[in-house]
Known about the structure:
Elements: H1 3-16, H2 49-73, H3 76-93, H4 100-112, H5 120-136, H6 139-143, H7 146-154, H8 163-169, H9 171-187, H10 191-194, H11 199-203, H12 208-220, H13 227-231, H14 234-243, H15 262-266, E1 272-273, H16 281-311, H17 313-317, H18 321-333, H19 342-349, H20 354-389, E2 400-401, H21 417-432
Antiparallel strand pairs: 1-2
Helix pairs in contact: 2-3, 2-5, 3-7, 4-5, 4-9, 5-14, 9-14, 9-20, 16-20, 18-20
Amino acid sequence: MTRWARITAFIIVLQTLSLDALGELRFPPPEFESGYRFPQTTSPAARSAVYEYVDAAVLLATLLLATYLILKRRSRRAVYALMIFALLYFGFWRDGCICPIGAIQNVTLTVFDSGYAIPISAGIFFVLPLVFTLFVGRTFCGAVCPLGAIQDAVLLHPVAVPRWLESGLRLGAYTYLGTAVLFAAIGNSFLICRYDPFIGFFRLTGNWNVLIIGTALLLIGLFIGRPYCRFLCPYGVLLRQMSRLSKWRVTITPNECIKCRLCEGACPFGAIREPTGDWPQGEYKIAKRRLALFLLLLPILVVSGGWGGYTLKERLARVHPKVRTAERVYLEETGKVEGTTNASKAFRATGRTSEELYQEATAIRGRFALGGALLGGFIGLVVAGKLVALSVQRRRSDYEADRAGCFACGRCYQYCPKERERWNKSKEVVAGR
């Protein structure tokens, strides 16, 4: 099946809202004993270095174009067209690999494994969106990310999610990020790539469990805007924090805000913040006390989270294949199980002693104990930060797009009366010429 055939198939899928996964066998199976099940190929073939640089150039070009369309031209239609192009190119044409989200693991492995060097393309894909977000906000999310585009394409009837619930659900993205970094650093496991929910649609093949997860997210995405981006995306965590520092960002109206609230209803991501007034004296005092309490709770939450992560060290360590092999070999040597496995056979074929394997497994468990404690402490810190944010209020005189939560999709432009007024004036000037 050619790439263009797969792109055509996906367009049909979007039109009919039905999802179908097609298998693809790239190489003839070797001769094995009867009953052997040949594994599905889930990774694309290696690409030429030239194509990797072409992909990086396309990424840079689309980020530049997205910045212009979102901040300067302010056109939702143009942004949507670029989003579809990014979906077809980065999603279907490039098989969804490599992407900035998965590159988190490449960067992590480069830091913790001296024998691994990150591919240039992975480094570029990881850094470029972050740099753009630092200066111009989340234009990558708005028009370039294929994972966001596939969710945006199926959004039909958006339903608002309460702000308190969204803040709580977003904890899943922080947990996912921390766990993925831990597994890449210690377990040599690329968790993000293994459970990418939409990679199966881009390649029209893959693990059925992951396809089911992706299908569920797309079904939820019919009513909840970009559920993966808002509540699970680990790269989105980094983009949220970088966008808080951005010098330029999405502004809903080109001049003054008339407080019509149309932009608030148009945003499917709950990213529009309403104007704030002065807090009543009584409520202000309550907020100050609450802030003091949450600041006192901060170290308690961090320590509690660290302890909780430490207690999970055994479960986390079993992700590593050496730990699983050591446990199996121990069970076989102590007579607690019968027979052998492929992993235990392969270990014995190396001629090494079981004591050496046990020592390595113990060392790995120790690293997971430390890593689990750090992961738990990180999650506790995030929870404490969210609680502290409840008692902090930034003054706003107009309706504004939240720096961290705005996906720069441009929907609010077409609903703003002042923006439409600007468009009409621009048309009159063009007509007058």
